[in-house]
Design a protein that fits this description.
Number of strands: 3
Helix content: 40-55%
Order of helices and strands: EHEHHEH
Radius of gyration: 16 Å
Distance between the termini: 24 Å
Structural class: alpha/beta
Shape: elongated
Number of helices: 4
Strand content: 5-15%
Oligomer: single chain
Length: 115
């Protein structure tokens, strides 16, 4: 029986408007069934993302006109997200299941490195 889950989502899963409301209804369904849900937002820091996208991305566009190398595609963002996930794994040690609602990040990589 699953008693506690930790869900990593790109955006606040408490908000109905977060990407097509999938994270909201996904976590709400578990909570409605009595499962304790820990929500971890892995969305990039707005200040860092804004700085990258307004300054560095413009410089990149000078060389590569159609580049889509936004902040959330950088190794730095990947590092920060993995760090958030590691902290969550340590913060919620009683979690039965870790779930990532993302195409880019998987908690398995974090759990293996914690062993």
């Amino acid at each position: 029986m699953i008693k506690e889950i930790t869900v990593f989502s790109y955006g606040d899963s408490n908000l109905l408007k977060t990407w097509s409301n999938v994270p909201y209804f996904f976590t709400k369904t578990f909570a409605d069934d009595g499962v304790s849900v820990n929500r971890v937002n892995v969305e990039p820091n707005r200040l860092l993302a804004g700085l990258w996208n307004r300054v560095f991305l413009r410089l990149i566009h000078v060389i590569f006109k159609n580049s889509t190398y936004t902040f959330d595609r950088t190794p730095f963002f990947r590092f920060l997200t993995n760090r958030k996930m590691k902290i969550a794994v340590q913060k919620y040690p009683q979690t039965d299941v870790f779930i990532s609602i993302s195409f880019s990040f998987h908690p398995k990589n974090i759990l293996i490195s914690q062993s």
